[in-house]
From TrEMBL, chain A:
<comment type="pathway">
    <text>tRNA modification; 5-methoxycarbonylmethyl-2-thiouridine-tRNA biosynthesis.</text>
</comment>
<dbReference type="InterPro" id="IPR008728">
    <property type="entry name" value="Elongator_complex_protein_4"/>
</dbReference>
<keyword id="KW-0963">Cytoplasm</keyword>
<dbReference type="GO" id="GO:0008023">
    <property type="term" value="C:transcription elongation factor complex"/>
</dbReference>
<keyword id="KW-0539">Nucleus</keyword>
<dbReference type="GO" id="GO:0033588">
    <property type="term" value="C:elongator holoenzyme complex"/>
</dbReference>
<comment type="function">
    <text>Component of the elongator complex which is required for multiple tRNA modifications, including mcm5U (5-methoxycarbonylmethyl uridine), mcm5s2U (5-methoxycarbonylmethyl-2-thiouridine), and ncm5U (5-carbamoylmethyl uridine). The elongator complex catalyzes the formation of carboxymethyluridine in the wobble base at position 34 in tRNAs.</text>
</comment>
<dbReference type="Pfam" id="PF05625">
    <property type="entry name" value="PAXNEB"/>
</dbReference>
<dbReference type="GO" id="GO:0005737">
    <property type="term" value="C:cytoplasm"/>
</dbReference>
From TrEMBL, chain B:
<keyword id="KW-0819">tRNA processing</keyword>
<dbReference type="GO" id="GO:0033588">
    <property type="term" value="C:elongator holoenzyme complex"/>
</dbReference>
<comment type="similarity">
    <text>Belongs to the ELP6 family.</text>
</comment>
<keyword id="KW-0963">Cytoplasm</keyword>
<dbReference type="GO" id="GO:0005737">
    <property type="term" value="C:cytoplasm"/>
</dbReference>
<dbReference type="InterPro" id="IPR018627">
    <property type="entry name" value="ELP6"/>
</dbReference>
<dbReference type="InterPro" id="IPR027417">
    <property type="entry name" value="P-loop_NTPase"/>
</dbReference>
<keyword id="KW-0539">Nucleus</keyword>
<dbReference type="GO" id="GO:0005634">
    <property type="term" value="C:nucleus"/>
</dbReference>
């Protein structure tokens, strides 16, 4: 599903019975990286042979599909990550620590998981997926301007019309294509991957992104509830991206989080003061994991680290643990340490499924 | 008996408490009406099996009445027309209709737990997971509080049963409606189990802290509320509790 993400997303692969996950992604300010993740989700579906359902209010689904990243073949992938992997291995000799000897026995921090922990496929962002590969699977699309012009408006739960129409469309596909177990004689089981772009944005006819007192604060959450029901009842997984930074009413985002299985927030450094912060010079943004699924189990698969950052290299989009570089500058002094501590405070917002701390312990 | 228990969580997920109470009351031989709004039946069933109880069997013998909110909502929206006319109950009617009261849901609860001839289950329990979903679906806070009140009267007073309700929400929450509901319920609860994330942040061995508040102040005699605090770690089939600072990882 996502690459190089380690433990947090491995649990998705264990859903052998019913992969029915609702992933909500809080878009970064300009939608650059969330769009990328959106396309990765769809691309993974193509490579795995799943059916796709792409919904958008602003972009033609066929155009979105034309821009999916091309999968990396095995040898290419090894070359790409090869340089980094060998760099780590060359330090393998046991270097005994003199000052920080307490840390001697801790495992080396792995910035990105090794090839043995590979999950999903890898993609080359600089190339687009071939049309032959795309044609090998079935794609359903929903483009709101087209849909609204076709049929008369429908009434569903006093919900926003665009959302209601989308739900109807998804339900129809799930039923007709047998993802919910109807027509068992039809064909072998497959998974439906649903992607909904920029839900809640004004183009969907919802005003939660444009005003503090929206006319209807419940449309989006009602939509999510019904969508959740559809997903649970069928073999499907869905990613939605939400421009959370535009939603003034924060209660809505809290409710959206409660109704989703996985919630990931993307914070890009474009245009923010963090762009020039030396702490973040290697990265393009941060990833905040607000919620991970706790399905069919008392426990959830929480990874050790809460601080994830991402960067977009020429060919690869990677997600890594964010680690502070040692402060080796000439101006090492108390005041610069204060800056580092301030920046570090912003790091561990934690994950809702386990525990979020309010106070930052200064070590 | 006749008690209202509020399960709340802040900065963490307190649903493990719901699983506990579900299996606890089923094993104790009570008739349970479970209004499960957020997760599917199979989710609870799989966890209950780990805790030693089969929900399917309980349903078959009539001990468990399970309302799967998600499925019920789908039936209501995409179901066949004939079902509507057949007088099928629609407990989540408030989502699609303009009336914002939860009367239909209350009727469902009341009829599920009503005493029936040949009933082998002496105790009565209403379990609800979780209250915030009702607000997300358009019910007003007052409607939710009314619903809870009616359930209390029906279950706790008339049937001498127990009501256990889960509500999320925390101090930094911006969801005012939710806070209103949770705060109000806190005042009226006989027992509050409050799961919180640790103030110091994420820890692998201690998943959170549980505050148990027995509202002795509500009883005649006017004693003070009793507060106990434990820390806990959730495992695959079990949750271990220990006194603060005494996690096995530390000792």
């Amino acid at each position: 599903l996502l690459l190089c993400c380690g433990n947090s997303y491995r649990c998705l692969s264990n859903q052998k019975q019913n992969p029915t996950i609702l992933v909500s992604t809080e878009e970064d300010k300009y939608g650059v990286y969330s769009n990328l993740l959106f396309k990765y989700f769809l691309a993974e579906g193509v490579v795995c042979g799943h059916d796709l359902f792409v919904a958008s209010a602003k972009e033609l689904p066929t155009n979105i599909l034309k821009e999916l990243p091309a999968p990396l073949l095995d040898d290419n992938y090894r070359n790409e990550l090869g340089e980094e992997a060998t760099a780590v291995k060359s330090e393998d000799f046991q270097d005994s620590m003199k000052i920080a000897w307490r840390y001697q026995n801790l495992p080396k921090v792995e910035v990105s998981p090794t090839t043995s922990a590979r999950f999903g496929h890898y993609y080359d962002v600089s190339k687009t997926m071939s049309s032959e590969l795309l044609q090998s699977i079935k794609c359903h699309s929903f483009f709101l301007p087209e849909e609204l012009s076709l049929q008369p408006t429908i009434k569903m739960c006093n919900m926003n019309c665009g959302y209601a129409r989308l739900l109807q469309s998804i339900q129809k596909i799930i039923y007709q294509e047998g993802f919910d177990g109807s027509h068992p004689q039809k064909k072998q089981k497959n998974i439906l991957r649903i992607g909904v772009q920029s839900l809640g944005a004004m183009l969907w006819g919802d005003d939660i992104c444009s005003t503090d007192n929206p006319e209807d604060t419940h449309s989006l959450t009602k939509f999510l509830y019904v969508l959740r029901g559809l997903l649970r009842k069928s073999l499907s997984a869905c990613i939605i991206t939400v421009p959370a930074h535009l939603i003034q009413n924060k209660a809505i985002m809290e409710r959206v989080t409660n109704l989703s299985d996985v919630v990931v927030g993307l914070e890009s450094f474009i245009g923010s003061e963090r762009e020039t912060n030396p702490l973040y010079k290697d990265y393009h943004g941060l990833i905040h994991v607000h919620q991970i699924p706790r399905l069919n189990s008392l426990i959830c698969d929480v990874s050790d680290t809460k601080d994830l950052a991402f960067r977009l290299k020429r060919k690869l989009f990677t997600i890594e643990r964010l680690h502070l570089p040692p402060d080796l500058s000439d101006t090492v002094s108390r005041s610069s340490k204060q800056d580092l501590a301030e920046s570090a405070k912003l790091l561990s917002s934690g994950c809702g499924a386990m525990a979020i701390g309010k106070k930052h312990l200064d070590f | 008996q006749g008690k209202f228990t509020l399960l709340r969580d802040t900065r963490t997920d307190g649903s493990f408490l719901v699983h506990h109470f579900l299996s606890f009351y089923l094993r104790a031989g009570c008739k349970v009406c479970f209004v499960a709004l957020l997760q599917s039946f199979s989710h609870y069933n799989i966890v209950a099996q780990k805790l030693g109880v089969s929900l399917t069997a309980a349903k078959e013998r009539g001990q468990l009445v399970f309302l799967e909110g998600l499925a019920s909502c789908l039936d209501m929206l995409f179901g066949e027309e004939e079902e509507e006319q057949a007088g099928q109950p629609r407990p989540l009617r408030f989502i699609s209709e303009s009336t914002s009261d939860l009367r239909a849901l209350f009727d469902f609860v009341r009829t599920s737990l009503a005493p029936a001839a040949g009933d082998a289950w002496p105790g009565r329990v209403l379990l609800l997971d979780d209250l915030g979903v009702l607000l997300s679906l358009g019910a007003s806070p007052v409607a939710v509080l009314d619903f809870v009140h009616y359930c209390r009267v029906a279950v706790c007073c008339r049937l001498q049963g127990n009501v256990v309700v889960l509500a999320h929400g925390g101090e930094d929450s911006e969801d005012e409606e939710n806070e209103l509901v949770v705060t109000s319920l806190c005042h009226h609860s006989d027992l509050i189990l409050w799961a919180e994330g640790l103030a110091t942040g994420f820890c692998k061995d201690v998943h959170g802290q549980l505050k148990i508040i027995r509202r002795a102040s509500l009883q005649p005699g006017g004693e003070q509320d009793v507060l106990q605090t434990y820390q806990y770690k959730i495992q695959d089939k079990n949750v271990t509790f220990f006194a603060r600072g005494l996690s096995a990882a530390v000792l």
